[in-house]
Amino acid sequence: MTTDQIMWEIENVGHAGASQRHAIAASQAVLVFTVSIFLATVVSAEDRTVRISDATTDKDGFLTHTVESPYQAGQTEIRVLLPERLEQGKRYPVVYLLPVEAYNESHYGSGLLEVKQHDFHKKCPAIFVAPTFSGTPWYADHPTNPLIRQETYFLNVVVPFIERRYPAQRKASGRLLLGFSKSGWGAFSLMLHYPDVFRRAAAWDAPLMKDKPNQYGMGDIFGTQENFEKYQIAKLLERHATELRGQKRLPARRCRRNLRLRGVP
């Protein structure tokens, strides 16, 4: 089963539950290689202060790591659901199930539980990962508060750890993002900012056309209108529409009309 087939399976179940990107080849290869090295190595003094525990198994059967990092205000977690059958020497794509709430709050449900309940870890050869954040996750870095750097935390801590610790593919085609509502925004934001790092992002019921950080706890994370505009999905879509058109890398549910208005089919 390909990564696109895996996402198709999950997107369709997610939709039911919610009712629930031609460059020069040489330069592109250099960019992909550079980003891969960035993700695979720890270079900053801040990253060296990150502490991640060994895995324990929680009540739902998920492998759980606690994380202390300079990018988040409190202790966070990375929860992992492995394929039922792991083949020796094989590396698997990773589906990052992005949360909509801080810490382990689950008022809107748990993406990892949905995956388990639908037996995707049995049907799909993929690793499913659910990180947590200490604040309302909008997948952005605050302009002045160093303890609100959600984008940096995800890129510097979560993804590199998974690719060191587990048999995960270390290439864009093996990194998939899935989100609902705020995390749907996050999935699109991450993919649009780093199209050579992530292969695909799927979202449903996401406020992709927001033009001000004035709802849903956005102000606390984005800080200013200027900072918000760096992450504004509409602007990112306009910037990348030509290169992404026809690639079907941004499947979205219940927000398709607004995407088409921005030139993304």
Topology overview:
Elements lengths: L2 H15 L7 H16 L10 E2 L3 E2 L5 E6 L7 E6 L12 E4 L13 H7 L2 H4 L3 E5 L18 H16 L9 E6 L1 H12 L6 E5 L13 H5 L2 H7 L1 H12 L7 E2 L2 H6 L4
Parallel strand pairs: 5-6, 5-7, 7-8, 8-9
Antiparallel strand pairs: 1-3, 2-3, 3-4, 4-6
Helix pairs in contact: 6-9
Short description:
The protein is α/β, with parallel strands linked by helices and 265 residues long.
Distance between the termini: 25 Å
Q: Determine the mean pLDDT.
A: 84
Q: How many beta-strand segments?
A: 9
In the predicted model, the low-confidence regions spanning at least 5 consecutive residues are 15-34, 261-265
Remind me, CATH topology? Rossmann fold
| Structural class determined from secondary elements | alpha/beta
* CATH homologous superfamily placement: Alpha/Beta hydrolase fold, catalytic domain
The largest sheet, given as strand count, sense and whether it forms a barrel, is: 9 strands, mixed
- Spatial extent as radius of gyration: 17 Å
Tally the helices: 10
Proportion in helices: 25-40%
C-alpha geometry: globular
Annotated CATH architecture: 3-Layer(aba) Sandwich
Element-level helix/strand string: HHEEEEEHHEHEHEHHHEH
Describe this protein with a few key phrases.
Rossmann fold; 265 residues; globular; 9-stranded mixed β-sheet; alpha/beta
Give a description of the structure:
It is a single chain. The chain has about 260 residues and is α/β, with parallel strands linked by helices. The chain has one domain (about 5-260): Alpha/Beta hydrolase fold, catalytic domain (Rossmann fold, 3-Layer(aba) Sandwich), CATH 3.40.50.1820. About 40% of the residues lie in helices and about 15% in strands. It contains 10 helices and 9 strands. Strands 1, 2, 3, 4, 5, 6, 7, 8 and 9 form a 9-stranded mixed beta sheet that branches. α6 (about 180-195) packs across α9. It is globular and about 50 Å long.
